[in-house]
Every structure is written in structure tokens, then in C-alpha cells.
């Protein structure tokens, strides 16, 4: 029998399988990276907070909501993204009309504004207003 006709040993099969698994993982990683780096494609909802240094209401939000936001259902659904209103608007948010008001919260999904909360109305009112926006996000069938 020629060497090519001989069945592969278990060790060789394991090496081939391992190589194939590595290739699969590599290509999956490439696809995921491409999606994450392509603006707007892999984006889910996010709550954009426009803030400004020295803003008393921004500080109050940071004290009351900031430590827990990412742990809540709302924070999981729409992670908080902070943008300083004194800096140029990031290119991926160029579709948003921005007001010179801090804080300003805009719920964004797939390159579209879902709604906004102007100012920080206090802890209870903030959660209620955000709940309305999240419900709108779910009703629209987004993300």
C-alpha cells in the first residue's frame, strides 16, 4: 500500500481536526471584527449622554445613577455612552441634532434617534422616562 492510501492515525486526525477548528475560530473572529468595526452594522441600542465638565446635574446623575446603570436591564439593553458637548460630535453620531444642554440623554438605535431626555429630572423620574423610551424601542421592533 502506498503511504497516501494508508488510513490516518488518531493523532493525525486530532491534528487535522484541531487545525480545522482553529481555522473556523479564526474566520469567525474575522467576521465578528468586521461587523464591530463597520459603522452602524453591529450596533445595538445605546443611551448617549451629552455632558460637560462642571455640570452639577451631570455630577448628580453620576452619583445617583452612574454606579448602577450598567447593572440594570436598561443598562444591558442600551449601554451608556458619554460624549462631552465641548468636543466635536463623533462621526457616528453626526445624524443627531445636539442641543447645548447638559446633561442630554438620547436613546439611539441602528443610526436613528429613538427619543431623548433633556436634563436630569432626578432618579425616579429618570427611570420612568427611560422606561418609556425603552418601551418605544421594543415596540418599534428595534435591536
CATH fold type of the largest domain: Glutaredoxin
Structural class: alpha+beta
Could you state the oligomeric state of the chains shown?
A: single chain
SSE order in H/E notation?
HEHHHEEEH
Give a structural overview.
With 143 residues, the protein is of the alpha+beta class. The protein has 2 domains: 8-37; 46-139, Glutaredoxin. It has helices at residues 10-37, 56-64, 66-69, 73-77, 123-139, and strands at residues 46-51, 80-84, 104-109, 112-118. A 4-stranded mixed beta sheet has the order 2-1-3-4, covered by helices on one side. A hairpin with a 2-residue loop joins strand 3 and strand 4. The chain is globular and about 70 Å long. The model is unreliable at 30-42 (pLDDT under 50).
Could you give the topology of this structure?
Layout: H1 10-37, E1 46-51, H2 56-64, H3 66-69, H4 73-77, E2 80-84, E3 104-109, E4 112-118, H5 123-139
Parallel strand pairs: 1-2
Antiparallel strand pairs: 1-3, 3-4
